[in-house]
Each structure stands twice: as C-alpha cells, then as structure tokens.
Amino acid sequence: MAYAPPNVFVIAAAAALLAGAGCSGNLRLPGAARGPAAPPESWAYPAADVVPVLASGGMVSTTDRIASEVGAEVIRRGGNAVDAAVATHFALAVVNPEAGNIGGGGFLVARMKDGTIAALDFREKAPRAATRDMYLDERGEVSERALIGHLAAGVPGSVAGMWEAHKRFGTLPWADLVQPAINLAEGIVVHARLARSLQSHVTELRRFPATAAVFLVDSQPPRVGDRLVQRDMAETLRRIARDGKDGFYRGRTAELVEEEMRRGGGIMTRDDLARYEAVWRDPIVFGYREHTVISMSPSSSGGITLAEILNVLEDFDLRRARYHSRDHVHVWTEAVKRAFADRNEYLADPDFVPQPTATLISDEYAARRGADIDLRRATPAARIQPGLGAAPLRSAGREGANTTHYSIVDGQGNAVAVTTTINSLYGNLVTVAGAGFLLNNEMDDFAARPGTPNQFGLVQGSANAIEPDKRMLSAMTPTIVLDPSGRVKLVTGSPGGPTIITTVAQMISNVVDFGMDAGAATAAPRLHHQHLPDTLYYERGGLRPEVADALRAMGHAVAERRGYQGDTQTIVVLPDGRLSGVADPRRGGAAVGVRLPR
Length: 598
Hints:
Layout: E1 53-55, E2 58-62, H1 65-76, H2 81-95, E3 105-111, E4 117-122, H3 158-169, H4 174-185, E5 188-189, H5 192-200, H6 202-205, H7 209-215, E6 227-228, H8 231-243, H9 246-249, H10 251-264, H11 270-275, E7 279-281, E8 284-288, E9 291-295, H12 302-313, H13 326-346, H14 357-360, H15 363-370, E10 404-410, E11 415-421, E12 479-482, E13 488-492, H16 499-512, H17 518-523, E14 527-528, E15 536-538, H18 545-553, E16 558-560, E17 569-573, E18 579-583, E19 590-594
Helix pairs in contact: 1-2, 2-3, 2-4, 4-8, 12-13, 12-15, 12-16, 13-18
C-alpha cells in the first residue's frame, strides 16, 4: 500500500476486481501448500549456519570486517550512524578497492531517531563533453570504451555525498572520521578476501601501469599476510580530511584527475569536478503489509521498482504459500517482470526526464499491472508492455555483479543504508596516477545505444540516453523498513547490478511474509528476473529440480546461474530493541556490534 512522501502526490489506493485467472487482494495461491518448504540439500548456505550477531548499542555490517570495526568504533566514541557511515565509507575505499571507492558514487537512505527520513543522491554524472553516441563504433555498436579506460569514467560523487551527509546529520569532526582510512592506506595486512579479489583480477589490473603499481608487486598480487601500502591514496585522503569536499573536487586532486584524463584520452575536467554536487531527494516511501518501506528515488531505479514489485505481490497471500514452491516463485517472477519492464522504459535522472513516480508506486497502478497475471501460465516478456505506453524493447544480454553496501544502526535509533560503487569490479581499471584511487566505469549504465543491453543485460530506453551533466540510472536500493508501530525493523541492501532490486525485494518478503530472522533471510536462495532476457535465474543449487521443472511446464525459461547472487548487509531490530546483524556469507564480511556501557 503506497504512502505519500513529502512533495510527492500518490494516487489513492483503490480496491481492484481482477478478472479471469488474475487475482484480488490476498488471493490464496492454488496448490501452494503442496510445494516444498525448504531449500535443496545441495544448497550451500543452510540457515542454521548463518548466525546473527546481537548487540544493544549499535551495529555496523559491511563486506569487510576492518571497515565494520572502523564504523563500530565511531559509535563507541559517541558518534551517530551518519558519523559511522562516513568513517566506514572511506575505510572501504582502502580495504575494498574492487567496489568501495572514492572514485565512484552511490546513494544514502537515512531514518533518524526523531523520525526524519532522507535520501541522498551522490551518483556520478556525465562530463560536460559527453555526447549521446560517444561509445558507438563505426558499425554503430557499443565499444569497449564504455567499460575500460579513461573515457568510461563519470564524475565521481562519493566524497561530495559523505560531505553532504556529514553537514546535515554528523556530530563528530570530519577530519576525525577520515583519519582511520588514512591510517589504513599507510599500510594494511592483506587478508584472505582482498588477496582472493586481487588474484582473480590480476590480468585486468596489469592493463594500466598506475593501477599495477598500487596493487601488484613485480606484476603479482600480494599474498595473505603481506603489507599493502597505498601512499598516494593516503595523501588524497589527507587533503579530504583537511579541506573537506574541496580537498577532492578542487586543488591538487582535481589537477591529478585532469592530468590522468589527458594522458588516457578521457574527457573529465577540473571544471566537471568543481561543478559536482550531491543532491537530497525525496525518498520513495510506501507500505507493505502494514510495514513502511523507505528506499531510494531516481536517479536510482531501486525504490520505484521495489515498490512496484511489492505492491503487486501484496495482492497475493504469500503467507499461505510454501517458500519457493512453484506458485510462490511463479507469482514473484510475474510481478518482477512487469516492474522491470517499467523500470527499463521510464526511469532516469529526474533533473533531465520527468519521472512518473506517483503513478508507478501507487496501489491502483499495481492492481492494474497484476490484473493479467495468470496463476497457471507464465506471461512471455514480449507480451508485457511498459504500463504507461510505448513499445517494449527487444534485446537480451548477460549480467554481472559488483558494488558494495553497508548498513548501520546506532544505539540512539538512527539508521543508515548506503550502497556505493565504481560499477564493474575495479571500475574502469584506471588508477589516477599520484592520487592512488581507481575511477569508475559508470558511463556504461547509460543507454549508450537505447534498445541494446549494457554489461548487466539491461535493455533501456532513450530516457537514460547520455547527456552532459546527467546522472546515469542505477539499480542501487539502500532500504529501511519500519514496523507497524513506526520503529525501524530492517536495514538492508546489496551489490549486484540489476539483481540488487530483486535481492532487496526478497529480503523484505523473507522477513515480512515468511517471518524469517536476519540469518535465515540472508541464507535463503535467491531468484532474479529483469524482463529481458526472459529468463528466471536461480542461485547454484538453490531451487529444487521438481520446482524448476514445474515452472518450465508453466512456460518459464529457468536457468541456474553459475554462482551466487548479492552480498546483503542486514540489520534487524528485534522486539526487545536489540540489534541482529548479518553479513552475507556469499562474499564474506562481518557485522560488528557495539555493547552499551555498563
């Protein structure tokens, strides 16, 4: 059920009578109770093995234990959740260079103890010299330049985002929050997760000398126990600590970025950096089964698409369905296909393209979108038109996974969800010489050629075409859920390109519909569909063969992905006020709790 956030008019909910094999509110799914209730025996992450961390004074969950410890220490020293987010963010830039990096951007969603909600857009922007067809080769095909090398970089937003968040909500001195990252850049002991990441991408890291100089020794990655020193990164962080936002977007760092662009044929300038601003947006707020969901608005597609998925599902009584039975998976897939058809056609930077937010997150629209769901047959994607008009796109492609997310709740009740990225793992592979940080390849998230897939297989319309100063569309979905009494209940998010949205939707449904705790909700096998390609993907070993066969008999194309989906960082607030945190075992990381002083 939709909720109207400030300055967003939401069409009032209307009861819908749905015809034929469709549904009306809380329809019981036929035969669902006969489906399996547990994942296959081959599933890699049994719920019993994913044990939440419990604490009462605060919780920080990230993909890296060091970064989690940094954030937790800020809370111990009296900082709030936003202070901890700033320190965690910069720490991740050092210890998780594959994704958490000051050369990228992202989104922050906050719910403060006084009830204030906020959404901060620090997504990258296209340089002013960008053009619509800049990545098309002589045959009109999208070239590698959208992914690798200097031309792939958008203007970074991370430092501006942390600066804006701290100005509005921070309590501790800025420089104190950046200092832990400086200490880490001056030398860290390489741990297993970082060593594996560098080893698996060693070929890519060798492509650019400045990148190899930072992360490799004699062209080889460091081993566990080696010391990794990032001196140039430390100097960049010192400038940020001393001068705040201007320490990155002006002065020496901006000069180094412009020099790097000239060397490699890029187009970003010091003027592009100086003009960059993070923007406060109205968050996407809607209801789901008496809970309130707060998520990110465009230029992220996450909140709107999440709202449409869950609003459609709310008309089905999933509580009566067995988890991952044929009927549960079928209805979930049909809802997701419709939401992604709209996402790919309409959503874009709201400063350039008017967004139909009020309609897309309304209950009335969800009822209309779900009205033609056949409970016995799959609807081919080619028949699912975008719901507000325009022809469907026709193409397909592969998808990938990257990015990083962290969740924080402090002992006062402030909650922050942040998803940040440089897009592909290690971004565009270019390190700014003398500055020590990797640049993003977010320009690929534009529709470089509308109607053809990007690296994630997303087929997007002209609303997301390249324009100077425009923010490329994202799937990042940092999300906070309030319980029926208005208290924070769930803070979550994930990396994974377009799978971010479906992963977060499943986390919410796991907790709200199926009553799972943080561990079970995280451990549960995940599914993904994105309209095109018209394929339902499930994690390796995550769906029973008889269920997959039954779905195929209904007309679904079903495929087992080679690996796993997402890397959620989740905090659940228990009824007694304790915090239950879980870092996803799929990639590692840690939830670190803070004890209240005795």
